[in-house]
Amino acid sequence: MFLENIKMSLQNVVNNKMRSFLTALGIIIGVASIISLITIMQIATNSITTQFNDLGAGKLVVSAPGTPLKKGLTDRDLQTISQIQGVTAVSPTLSLQATAVRGNIVEENITLEGKSNIYFDQNADIVALGRPLTKIDGENKALVCVINTDLQQLLFSNDDPIGKQLQIKDITYTVVGVLDPTVAGDVMNMVSQQRGTNNSDGKAIIPYQTAMVVAGIRGITSLEVIIDDPDNSTQISNNLEVALKQAFNDKDNSYSIINMDSLIETMNTMLSMMTSLLVGIASIALLVGGIGIMNMMLVSVTERTQEIGLRKALGAKPIQIQTQFIIESIFLSLLGGILGLILGLLISFVASRAMDLDFIVSASAIILGLGFSAGVGIVFGWMPARNASRLNPIDALRSN
Amino acid sequence: MNEILSMKNIIKSYHMGDEDQIILKGINFSVNKGEFVSILGPSGSGKSTMMNIIGCLDKPTSGEYKLNGESIDNLSEKELAHIRSREIGFIFQSFFLLSRLNALQNVELPLIYSGISPADRKTRALEMLEKVKLTNKIHNFPNQLSGGQQQRVAIARALANSPTILLADEPTGALDQKTGHAVMELFKALHAEGHTIIMITHDEHIAKNATRIVKILDGNLYEADDEIPDVD
């Protein structure tokens, strides 16, 4: 019986091709806009959060310019910070401009960064060639460096630079490693990578202890605090603040903490709010589509009054008539739903290409699209179907 | 006596504005198995209402109606649908075939509602179409069939569920004399096979094909040997 219903409904939809398509169009537009909005938002969210997660999950980024009397943090302050509960490591950063020389090649304005082994531990895949800086390098204030591919290009052409020497600020360093250009490592690099401004900027990383001596700096002004549990980031951030206040005698503007986890969280909340809002707006299209289906079903019931009367005379129970019309309505809106889904995915595919992002089809979008349209079919088909099932067979047969 | 239909004091009235209009005024009527009865009456006599009640499409206002021994007075719409499917084979003046279905599918329709499996449905429908001599037209759609052929499809459809009663409402009303005559021959043949037929008509010539004629006038039913009072 159920199969018969499906067959009958299908036949009716096919028999009225143009009308069925126009009716389904409302649903097609509604579902397509919902699906494309959800998918595009999901693609964007995914790409943003993966990038931020790569850089910032489980980290507090501290900037500590300090006070006129005390510029930056001392080794002892770093020690205190690393002993805060939940802090697994502290990765200080120093950055200055310098000139690099190799033989008669002079490269001005390269970035010289001082970092600890923690930085390399945290970004396991950042070194493409050779080795990262180690703890021992730092303790020995060793004259070794890891360079980026741009500097490799500038100073060594395409030769293997490992074990070779170069001079920065008149001090000779041995190259021990080359950075992978595709790994961002930290926020600043990511930003410059995306802007494409980093292209010809040479960079060399040396142990931060070495850098402090070379630059004559006594305090660390920039560091990343690695924490064990991102869920605990607020608590740890508060404790860190206490330590920083003590270090700088509670002076204003002497430090700032960026909690990456709470940033990501805030951003996710905003994105999902925006998604809900957009989907809410798109749902209006679906509602209008549903009303279109109801209208068409009401017309269809009126047109087929005699048929309904005949079916009843031949022994069709009211529920069988109702089922037939509901299935027809579901079929119509599901047809719209499927076409809308395809259209929506197509739109989001094009959009993701245009934004240069990875295209993902989420199961939730498909389930949502099909579920929504079937739901619309049931809700808006119910009333016309009930009308049909309640027709008096005598009146129905008499109608012309 | 093998009584399959019995009506006792059936009254049917409708509300028309302020007053009740009584259409059937206490009908007593019974039909035995294998009878071919004509209900003859002019328009407005109440014969359509009579047919609706016999066909379980409508319920009497009062009185007792038993079909195949079962009282239908207190049945729900769903149960009435079941009774119609099992006991009644309708044949209408204007055939009422579904235009989008071919002859075979039209005959299968009542079998769908009585829950017969698809395979059995087809066998059964083919059998019925053979009975009305339309085996060569089974895939034709109603608009590809003549009026007579359409009515034969409708008769095959009415026979499909082996109903207790074939209930025909002006079955020749939309046909020319010649095809009408052929349909009547088919009815006679079906009667000879043992089918019970009740035919409603206003045409005395058509009515005479039956073995028994009852007349309905102004809401009252008269057997052939009853004396019909002057209406005036």
Structure description:
The complex is a heterodimer of chains A (400) and B (232). With 400 residues, chain A is α+β, with helices and mostly antiparallel strands. Chain A has 14 helices and 10 strands. Helix content of chain A is 59%, strand content 17%. By secondary structure, chain B is of the alpha/beta class. Chain B has 7 helices and 10 strands. In chain B, the strands form 2 sheets. Chain B has a 6-stranded mixed β-sheet, with helices on both faces. In chain B, a hairpin with a 2-residue loop joins strand 4 and strand 5. In chain B, helix 4 packs across helix 5. The chains are: A alpha+beta (400), B alpha/beta (232). The interface between A and B is medium-sized, with 21 and 25 residues.
In short:
The complex is a heterodimer of chains A (400) and B (232). In chain A, 59% of the residues lie in helices and 17% in strands. Chain A has 400 residues and is of the alpha+beta class.
CATH topology of chain B: Rossmann fold
Using the 3D structure, state the CATH architecture of chain B: 3-Layer(aba) Sandwich
Tally of domains of chain B: 1
- Name the chain pair whose interface involves the most residues: A-B, 21 and 25 residues
| Number of helices, counting only DSSP H or I runs of 4 residues or more of chain B | 7
What percent of residues of chain A adopt helix (DSSP H or I)? Answer: 55-70%
How many H/I helical runs of chain A? 14
Q: CATH H level of chain B: which superfamily?
A: P-loop containing nucleotide triphosphate hydrolases
Radius of gyration of chain A: 33 Å
Structural class, from secondary structure content of chain B? alpha/beta
SS elements, strand count of chain B: 10
* Succession of helices and strands of chain B: EEEHEEHEHHHEHEHEE
Please provide the count of β strands of chain A.
10
Which consecutive residue ranges of chain A, at least 5 long each, have pLDDT under 50? none
β-strand percent of chain B reads 25-35%
Largest sheet of chain B, in brief, is:
6 strands, mixed
CATH class of chain B: Alpha Beta
